Amino acid sequence: TASSFRKYAIEHLLKEVKVDILKGNLGEIKFILGYDTKNKGIDSFEDENGAEKYCIELAEKLGAVVVMTGKTDIITDGKRMAKVSNGDAKLKKICGAGSSVAAIMATYSGLTEDYFLSATVGCAVMGVASEMAEERMKEREGIRTFKTYVHDAVSMMETKELMNRLNLVEVELD
């Protein structure tokens, strides 16, 4: 479980700062909502089945876009929802992968005030880039090489390639 300091810090931050996009794994999202979690540090051991309800609850509570990164990324503003199922399992082994996807979301947020769109595109770009990186891997290349290939794919990705590989589902919300 998270420390009492982490709990205080996140509660204080969310009271003082208007957040437009909040990204976390399911354990972090549930922690912010006050539920018991199965997190150890930044790693989540939560069953992601039914995760949508927690994402919607937090989006409505904060009036923000909530992004749950996981096997399938869930993006919602409480009114709309998208699920991005791109991504290679090696992403979990890369130090800084979460920060990288957050940076991509922030970059696209500079182009639009539709933060749901910028967050969805950020997840899609990172997921597709990791799949492209895996395709480049050769025998005896490790996780550091994979990380380099992911960054290369992000920097060189073309819209057509993203759209051809994108595995996105829009979910109707009541």
Write structural notes for this entry.
This protein has 174 residues and is of the alpha+beta class. It has seven helices and seven strands, in the order H-E-H-E-E-H-E-E-E-H-H-H-H-E. It has helices at residues 4-16, 26-33, 52-62, 97-109, 115-136, 143-156, 159-165; strands at residues 21-24, 39-40, 43-44, 65-68, 73-76, 81-84, 168-171. Strand 4 (65-68) and strand 5 (73-76) form a beta hairpin. Helix 2 (26-33) packs across helix 3, helix 4 crosses helix 5 and helix 5 packs across helix 6 (143-156). The termini are far apart. The model has no long low-confidence stretch (mean pLDDT 91).
Topology:
Blueprint: H1 4-16, E1 21-24, H2 26-33, E2 39-40, E3 43-44, H3 52-62, E4 65-68, E5 73-76, E6 81-84, H4 97-109, H5 115-136, H6 143-156, H7 159-165, E7 168-171
Rounded to an integer in angstroms, the radius of gyration calculated over CA atoms is 16 Å
Instruction: Tell me the number of strands.
Output: 7
Largest sheet: 5 strands, mixed
Strand fraction = 5-15%
Helix content: 40-55%
What general form does the structure show? Answer: globular
Helix-strand sequence: HEHEEHEEEHHHHE
How widely separated are the two ends?
33 Å
